[in-house]
Amino acid sequence: MEQSHHIRAAHRAEWIGTNLLRLVTLITAVPVIGVILYILARGIPAISLEFLTQMPRDGMRAGGIFPAIIGTIYLTLGTAVFSVPLGVAAGIYIAEYASDNWVTRLIRITIINLAGIPSVVYGLFGLGLFVVFLRFGTSILAASMTLSIMTLPVIISTTEEALRSVPNSFRVVSLSMGGTLWQTIWRITLPQALPGVITGVILGLERAAGETAPILFTGAAFFLPRLPQSPLDATMALPYHIFVISTSVPGMPVQIQYGTVLVLMVFVLGMNLAATLIRNRARARRQW
Amino acid sequence: MKAETVKNEGLITLLIRVSGYSSVFFVALILFFLIREGLPALGDVSLSSLFGTRWYPIEGYFGVLPLIIGSLIVTIGAMLIALPFGVGTAVFLSEVSPLWVKSVLKPVIEILAGLPSVVLGFLGIQLAAPFFRRFLELPTGLTAFTGAVLLGFISIPTIVSIAEDALNSVPSSFRQGSLALGATHWQTIWRVTVPAARSGILTAVMLGVGRAIGETMAVMMVTGNAPVLPHGLDALFLPVRTMTATIASEMGEVATGSPHYHVLFFIGIILFILSLAINIVASSIALQSRTRAERLLS
């Protein structure tokens, strides 16, 4: 009698517990899906060819968001110029060259710390080093370099992980046939790891494209009547533009706000989707 | 040709080695420039007024205490939300959910991680703040509470992904042993799997805290920007101002080299040290548990 009572209690706990977990997961996931659908529904009516290709008019309350789109593209490409070679090379160093000693441990700790530094602190650093000390001014160059350092940890870690997943036999064969260490990396290991590396690069750049705080005082402009002409010009950018039109422009039409949010969301989540597709395709085709 | 190859190889190896050390260089550089611009604050403002209770830069009051407390309130609030929901979701995904549900939900969590914080801030202003204002009958929806809810959601993906990894790495023999002894599925989760993954879950929560403290845009947009020292528990439902939001909203308007400029960099140093401490503690927890696991298995 006593025994069956215990068993019943255990089953009741099981039922309550697992359903509680289901509920908690549901409460986490449903708002995300809801929010995406809501932005789509409110944003799509704003999207038109004019909205995507025209300059803003009437104090940004009408017209398009072309300069913000172009600015975000410039900043993303500028970030890639600095962070991709440096990040991939650093990933190669850690995966293929570094031995397990205190220097390597120090490098690992600093990568973890770079990843944890608040984005607004990167903004301060970019202001102190690039804008003031190196006299770049608030410019695409200063903002891109600030964003590059912020994206480095993502690119380094994913490159390292992609290289480590290449089986060691690939390296052994190449080296035993007389290939040097660099030839082995360049012709064998890196091509095998390439989809993983590209995925990491896109994920890093995705983060850079959506960030606001690091570019606030290093390169973002409230409004510019014309497109930036050189890397030393400031630029409008989608994330900062969203901040501006949702906090500092009185009488802003809601439709333009949702339209701009939708454009940034498509930009960022599109990159995310591309990264996922590359990863999945490479996994399916991989023979090792 | 042979000599050429060797020479190139040497150059390339050097370049790669330098890139490898770059992260050390950049962390040092960040610290150097924060100190260079932030330490003069101690000369401009006395230490007692720097840690005073009044932040009113126009009249020369640079007390950072209200900002630190503001960050604390919002972060603690965020964790009260993110802890149960993040860990709960991780346990569900790793231990309960069927495979197809998991393959739908994981991308959803990744989308949440990928949404820019300014987008979440916008949604906070548009949807969350008006809702909480009406629902809780407050004079304004732009409060610490709205910020905490938003930050909770922002920290959830970090907690879910790391906690789920930790749960997945618990050997399945632990679960099989527990089930074979007659424990129910729930008892196995609660008394065996979760305790075995506890250090990984702790790491996840630490990194979630780091994510919450450092978050800037979303918090700045929804917390109402009032740098006042809170009294009592109702502070949660009043406007606050965090350290990050203060830097972001004021740095654009200060003159380079002014006391206000230096104090904002000084707040940057506080944030840098906080994130450093959180990450070092989090990674040492992870390291400790790994060496313990290696001892157990050998």
Could you explain the architecture of this structure?
The complex is a heterodimer of chains A (288) and B (298). Chain A is mainly α and 288 residues long. Chain A has two domains: 45 residues; 236 residues, MetI-like (MetI-like fold), CATH 1.10.3720.10. Chain A contains eleven helices and two strands. Chain A has a two-stranded antiparallel ribbon with strand order 1-2. In chain A, helix 7 runs antiparallel to helix 8. Chain A is globular, with a radius of gyration of 24 Å. Chain B is an all-alpha fold and 298 residues long. Chain B is built from 13 helices and two strands, in the order αααββαααααααααα. A two-stranded antiparallel sheet of chain B has the order 1-2. In chain B, helix 4 crosses helix 10, helix 5 crosses helix 7 and helix 8 packs antiparallel against helix 9. Chains A and B meet through helix 1, helix 3, helix 4, helix 5 and helix 6 of A and helix 1, helix 4, helix 5, helix 6 and helix 7 of B.
Euclidean distance between termini CA atoms of chain B: 50 Å
Overall 3D form of chain B: globular
What is the share of helical residues of chain B?
over 70%
* Low-confidence runs of chain A: none
Terminal Cα separation of chain A, in Å? 57 Å
Quick summary of this structure?
The complex is a heterodimer of chains A (288) and B (298). Chain A has 288 residues and is mainly alpha-helical.
What keywords describe this structure?
heterodimer; A: 288 residues; mainly alpha; MetI-like fold; 2 domains; B: 298 residues; two-stranded antiparallel ribbon; 2 strands; globular
List the helices and strands and how they pair.
The complex is a heterodimer of chains A (288) and B (298).
Chain A: H1 2-43, H2 49-53, E1 56-57, E2 62-63, H3 66-97, H4 102-116, H5 119-133, H6 140-164, H7 168-176, H8 181-210, H9 213-216, H10 238-247, H11 254-285
Antiparallel strand pairs in A: 1-2
Helix pairs in contact in A: 1-11, 3-6, 3-8, 4-6, 5-6, 6-8, 7-8, 8-11, 10-11
Chain B: H1 2-38, H2 41-44, H3 47-50, E1 55-56, E2 61-62, H4 65-96, H5 99-114, H6 117-135, H7 144-168, H8 172-180, H9 185-196, H10 198-214, H11 217-222, H12 243-250, H13 259-297
Antiparallel strand pairs in B: 1-2
Helix pairs in contact in B: 1-13, 4-7, 4-10, 5-7, 6-7, 7-10, 8-9, 10-13, 12-13
